Amino acid sequence: MMVRMSEGERLRRARVWIVLFVFGLVLAGLTAFPLVSESGWLVWWATDRGSPLAGFAGHFPAGVAWARHVHAGLADTARSYPFLAYGTDWLAFAHLVIAVAFVGPLRDPVRNVWVLDFGLIACAGIVPLAAICGPLRGLPLWWLPIDMSFGVFGALPLWLARRHVKAVERGRTATVAAAPAVVSGL
Question: To pair with 109 at 20 to 30 A between CA atoms, which of 15, 40, 93, 139?
């Protein structure tokens, strides 16, 4: 049995999915600033006997080796060429700015559904970007699905929000089409 949702419920659900997506963008943006610290924490979590993931190193040595390699590269770069981190500062800023674009769909999802389409296109673009640039930059092939998953997991809430918005749009169109014609007494 299919339950019909009201327009208000559909818009509420769309907004919940949009907020979830915005939260992910903001989190991704904020975590792009302290990469050296974060990579150091990852190495500690994966290798230190006192960490909650202490046994991780034995089960996925390639992952731990990669984390150590990334941390060493980031630490060396920060020490010798700190200005290169400015590129990831811009990456972080871009995530935060894109998150602001989703204020429009939060305010009026039907009118601003194009922003959801834009987000879906951007999420789809993550897959070829990772597939092309990952190998060019020397990332291990097993890492690429992890990067690609950001596009998949980002697209899911946007797709769900868009589904609700489009249902509201169809409902409004059907209501207008079904309304009797008003004859003006001019």
Answer: 93
